[in-house]
Amino acid sequence: MGSSILRSERGFALVIALLILLVLTLIGISAINTTTFETSISGNERVGTDAFYAAEAGIEIGRNQLPDTKSFYVPALGKDSSCRSGSLHDNSPKDLKSLGPYPKPGFDSSWGFKRYEVNATGSSFKAKKEIEVQVRLGPFRTDTGY
After folding, report:
1. What is the pTM of this model?
2. Using an 8 Å Cβ cutoff, are 98 and 130 in contact?
3. What is the spatial distance between Cα 29 and Cα 27, in angstroms, rounded to a whole number?
4. For residue 101, what are the contacts with CB-CB under 8 A and spacing of at least 6?
5. Which spans in the chain are helix H?
6. Residue 22 exposure: Cα atoms within 13 Å on the Cβ side
7. What is the rounded CA–CA span in Å between residue 86 and residue 59?
8. CA-wise closest residue to 131 among 73, 75, 81, 86
9. For the chain, what are the domain ranges?
10. Could you say which of 4, 56, 69, 86 has the lowest number of CB atoms within 10 Å?
11. What are the beta bridge partners of residue 131?
């Protein structure tokens, strides 16, 4: 009697079908988790890119106002983004920094250049990016021209 029970294949197809359904369910759950994770990554990348472009716009604002070194804050560059002068660690806009005269090879002492440092912080939603550039202006006459 024991050998006839082992030779009976009744219910075996049901067990195989349930195992296949279990494997397919695990694959589906894994695919959903991967898709959710990738969507989160792409959203964070988009917000970070928006913050970078806001900081880049801040650099352009700072460059356009040179040689005036006053601070700036632009609250609405686009949807939910802003920029200001200064670094990420500052709580308020900071003045642009003059680095003084800058001699350049090929120009005598009657010509001058000036250097400035421009820091800009862009933010979009909760992301923040900071850009720092050094700008050289010139040449301009430094002597009286007589």
Report:
1. 0.75
2. no
3. 6
4. 112, 113, 114, 115
5. 2-7, 12-65
6. 6
7. 10
8. 86
9. 11-141
10. 4
11. 120
Whether the Cβ atoms of residue 72 and residue 143 lie closer than 8 Å to each other: no
Work out the number of other CB atoms within 10 angstroms of the CB of residue 117.
14
- Per the CB < 8 A criterion, the answer to whether 89 and 50 are in contact is no
Q: Which residues pair with 81 in a beta bridge?
A: 78, 124
- Distance in angstroms (rounded) separating the CA atoms of residues 2 and 6: 7
Query: Could you give the CA distance from residue 73 to residue 83 in angstroms, rounded to a whole number?
Result: 6
CA distances from 105 to 67, 87, 92, 102, 112 (A): 22, 32, 38, 10, 11
Mean pLDDT by 10 residues, the chain (146 residues): 62 92 98 97 94 95 93 87 91 92 85 93 93 91 69
